[in-house]
Amino acid sequence: MADPSSRNVIDLYDRNAAEWESLRGTTLTEQPWLSAFLAAMPVAGKEVLDIGCGSGVPVARWLIGQGCRVTGVDGAAALIDRARSAFPDHRWIVEDMRTLSLTDKFHGLVAWHSFFHLPPEDQPAMFGHFGRLSAPGAALMFTSGTTHGEAIGSFAGSPLYHASLDADEYRTLLARNGFTLLNHVGNDPACGGATIWLARREG
Fold first, then answer.
1. Which residue segments constitute the domains of the chain, with CATH numbers given?
2. Residue 13, exposed/middle/buried by CB under 10 A (0-12, 13-18, 19+)?
3. pLDDT one-digit tens code per residue, 58-82
């Protein structure tokens, strides 16, 4: 059973959208990884699904600047409102990532610092969504923890839930859903200590 704070993540971001945007800032330490993600996508297309997109800054903004067409999904309506205002020519959807109802196929899927808010028991099913929404050759990039378990941080004076599977579980889920692992770095010191996975959908 997940810690009770796991049920409050979306509401916490929704109520504190301005504070999150201020704390997140515009610095893009992720750029080398985003460049690798872009390079792993099929040459023929740049349709990207940003899962847990927040306000669209800075990740979606960078992708848009590289010519990508972004569809952003986030459960926090206040953050989606900010994304729509900033990038009205792209598509922004309020939805919990666990119930993704999209039927499109994307050339790239990114879940940066968002997927790791799901309880461990909810994470395996996401790989079915990743596979279902991926065009042949699509790139997938997400961040996780380093070991199986929960970690409770703090945001806006409230507990902020994080959780992870272990590395072997992620490797198994990627392979089972048709993805080949391209790169994985745990606690990347060049990216704020993030643990990153980059894979490609085969066939």
1. 4-20+30-201 (3.40.50.150)
2. buried
3. 999 999 999 999 999 999 999 999 9
